Amino acid sequence: xxxxxxxxxxxxxxxxxxxxxxxxxxxxxxxxxxxxxxxxxxxxxxxxxxxxxxxxxxxxxxxxxxxxxxxxxxxxxxxxxxxxxxxxxxxxxxxxxxxxxxxxxxxxxxxxxxxxxxxxxxxxxxxxxxxxxxxxxxxxxxxxxxxxxxxxxxxxxxxxxxxxxxxxxxxxxxxxxxxxxxxxxxxxxxxxxxxxxxxxxxxxxxxxxxxxxxxxxxxxxxxxxxxxx
Length: 229
Known about the structure:
The chain is an alpha/beta fold.
């Protein structure tokens, strides 16, 4: 099965302009060593990838696996964390946040507001997790309450608590606002608590995609061990 649709998991869309060492660096792995007679026989392996190589941006554990096999394995090991993003103005950071959410194998990503979002930054990682849509903050908050999840806003508003102080709920939805305005008043009202990322320079805020990565790392540091443990 060929999983490439326009861009592959490396994000390659054509000529990158790389020269020298960058141009010679191999992405992924080549065909399975030894040829067909040495191919593994388990159903999770994709014959096309075994024959031609696996250039996807996946960890070594999933080399040569079919998309369906990767998704099934991830689903069996999902973390309890959910991530939500307010999409009030076609925020370009959503794709980046989805990619990070895949890296932490979150239980689900929730887009609140506009349904359509720019998938380019996701580097096709949205294929490996569940992305849900909620039309507004109230609908999203009702869903979180029904699921017994704590809505934790990430924003540097008055009264927020530093995320590095710990104590993030295990069953949480980390919610991020649009670039610039941050969380909407409606979403702030839905939050059980709001955390901020302590900064030491002059800028008031960091990119929403970067903030999401920091927040997910903070949660994982409290609640997850090594994936190989």
